Amino acid sequence: MKLSLNQATVKRASVPEVVDVCARHGVEGVGLWREPVAEHGLARTADLVRSAGLTVSSLCRGGFFTGHDQRLDDNRRAIDEAAALGARCLVLVPGGLPDRDLPAARGRVAAALSVLAPHAESAGVRLAIEPVHPVFCADRGVVSTLAQALELAAPHAPGVVGVVVDALHVWWDPALEASVAAAAPRIASYQVCDWVTPLPADVLLGRGLPGDGHVDLVGLTGLVAAAGYDGFVEVEVFNEEVWARPADDVAADLVRRHATGWEPVVDGGHDRLPVSP
Amino acid sequence: MKLSLNQATVKRASVPEVVDVCARHGVEGVGLWREPVAEHGLARTADLVRSAGLTVSSLCRGGFFTGHDQRLDDNRRAIDEAAALGARCLVLVPGGLPDRDLPAARGRVAAALSVLAPHAESAGVRLAIEPVHPVFCADRGVVSTLAQALELAAPHAPGVVGVVVDALHVWWDPALEASVAAAAPRIASYQVCDWVTPLPADVLLGRGLPGDGHVDLVGLTGLVAAAGYDGFVEVEVFNEEVWARPADDVAADLVRRHATGWEPVVDGGHDRLPVSP
């Protein structure tokens, strides 16, 4: 798989800086976020990535369908932005739990997909539902497993509604092997980072560079490849220490790690059995 | 279901203080932890709870089977302590991931159960595997769903190896309704607390009193009851603010909440859609 750099991994870099970094390090894909794209300008960003010969492996992000406002207009705009950028997919974060009715919140995700799928199809944009780690179920994503994302995608054509396989969100899943195999035609994005312990105070930033944590990324990458996925492997890391490093340093590091097939960098072999609360 | 107070909910109270609090508030069950029991003395604790007419709804905890030392001797001691206390079950926390091989770690849990089940059976103690929220998969519990715990229990008699249904650990599970129904003969312990947001810096302490968070405890309690469980509902909350309150105040509060059938106390109906990282 070719390497893609999600710009959130080097979040202090502007769109032009991220494009330059990718070019300097031979990274052929980039994952963009809507806010910095809007800052630089949608059309200018589209021209910039095209002239740099970069592929936009994903646009982050639409979704957040579970509130009483389902954000459908904003998601239609996100679809149009993904089309303008020629993005391989628009990542959809389901949204959290606005009350205590989890099945209803999950139902609102299904309803939103049915409304948006025709718009996405006519725009030539592939929607990608992201299963989100259960630690974020309440405040970020009520779709908790790859199997559940596949159920939500099932009513739609695989080319219109796919799923994201993000190592951080799915690595713990007892059904992972079977679910990745079942996802074969719908894997729209493969994102990697690593689960690190101890978690930082903000669990959202509990992501390490691939190879620095507990996840068997060699194994997961093998499962995704065996499912026939031949797109980009996109590195998306939210980590204060990584953000503090120069973007060139991070990119060079990721190119090295990618070349090893995401072999572990640190030894996770010591015992982490916890103390009692 | 009768109410039980897990002593970790009032962790600053000694064993005699917890027993007194239960007696004063008409709480008929108590969940004990091995460390404070050892401090007060096993035989003295057994006499104390017996003379107070209390049922030990659970002893916390054995398990942590996933390290290279599987702690089998310590678990045999825990079984004997549970027998001495007449505990309804010994809670087994699976243990975390000492390396990157999740299937192997899960296999060590199965192997340990096979070794310990005969000892538990002869001691008349019911083992209770606790599925642990995936946020703790790496450092605390590699058994992530109720369905997975049931698979591990399957080779053993339901009276010897059961499962724990802890609201905090299982509430997010898309398969919850089916899994609780499937667990019917094996539900050895039902524990309640609530998932609160934002999470504190230490996610282990991200537990609220039942009714203060996102979990539909009325619904979950209905599922557990429909599965035929007629044991205690045990409140286990790790929360600095709760620990800072007088034990009598916490117990009175829990008796009131239990009387409502765990109706929500705060309104979770406002929208919690998150900001971007």
UniProtKB/TrEMBL annotation, chains A, B:
Keyword Isomerase listed? The answer is yes
Q: Name one Pfam family in it.
A: AP_endonuc_2
User: Is the Amino-acid biosynthesis keyword given for this protein?
Assistant: no
- Tell me where on the tree of life, at the top rank, the source sits: Bacteria
* Database matches in InterPro entries: IolE/XylAMocC-like, Xyl_isomerase-like_sf, Xyl_isomerase-like_TIM-brl
Q: Which UniProt keywords apply?
A: Isomerase
The Gene Ontology terms for molecular function here are: isomerase activity
Q: Where is the Xylose isomerase-like TIM barrel domain?
A: 19-251
Designated name of the protein: Sugar phosphate isomerase/epimerase
